[in-house]
Amino acid sequence: MTNSLFPQSIFLASRSPRRRELLSQIGVQYELIDIEIDESVRESEKPIDYVNRMAWEKAQKGWQKLTAEMPNKVINKALLAADTSVVLNDKILGKPLNLNQAIEMLSQLAGNSHQVMTSVAIINKDWIKQAASVTKVHFGAMTEKEILAYCQSGEGADKAGGYAIQGIAAQHIKAIEGSYSGVVGLPLFETGELLKLHFGA
Ligand SMILES: Cc1cn([C@H]2C[C@H](O)[C@@H](COP(=O)(O)OP(=O)(O)OP(=O)(O)O)O2)c(=O)[nH]c1=O
């Protein structure tokens, strides 16, 4: 379904299949652009500053690539990028690199509350703007058996914090306060607001 508020396609600088699905959900047509950035956290950088910087850098890098490769095509276009971090007690939990890390992460999240921060940035020829969404996620208590079973499913392997609310992990999530789409990787309210600014809708 297309959204008449957003009549032209945008560029999406993301390898995340979740972000593609979420953008399609609100009827935005997109073309993909592949970029690579250094995702290391700076010393004493706050999690919210980190996600904002990452989304900003992804957007800028994507725009640089577009303008270098196809200068005529970008005139009236916008490019969107986003970044998601799972934050427990002010500490960023990245993507688990192996089963042990996944178990360690989920053991910290189980029976606890944490935040999911997602920043979305949109850039066009005139401006770059961004918005962040912070959602509190409450996990129910989990037995060792449940933690192992979940981690062995492999579902959380490429996800911040090692879980996917849109998947099996939902079984262990008691409540959230904030944006569901933000937890999955693209807060659709904030995204819509930024897209309206670009399209003058
Ligand atoms: C917490 C959580 C994260 N995630 C995903 C969203 C993001 O894809 C990923 C966080 O990693 P990101 O580094 O934000 O994104 P990415 O590397 O997957 O994609 P790209 O940078 O190319 O846009 O975790 C879920 O799918 N479900 C969840 O419940």
From TrEMBL:
Catalysis performed (reactions): dTTP + H2O = dTMP + diphosphate + H(+); UTP + H2O = UMP + diphosphate + H(+)
Gene Ontology cellular-component annotations: cytoplasm
Gene Ontology biological process terms from the UniProt entry: nucleotide metabolic process
Subcellular location(s) per record: Cytoplasm
Domain of life: Bacteria
GO molecular function, one term: dTTP diphosphatase activity
UniProt-annotated site: Important for substrate specificity, residues: 18, 84, 166
Enzyme Commission number(s): 3.6.1.9
Main location: cytoplasm
Keywords, ordered alphabetically: Cytoplasm, Hydrolase, Nucleotide metabolism
Residues annotated as the enzyme's active site: 83 (proton acceptor)
HAMAP family, per database record: Maf
Function description: Nucleoside triphosphate pyrophosphatase that hydrolyzes dTTP and UTP. May have a dual role in cell division arrest and in preventing the incorporation of modified nucleotides into cellular nucleic acids.
Family that this chain belongs to: Belongs to the Maf family. YhdE subfamily.
Protein name: dTTP/UTP pyrophosphatase
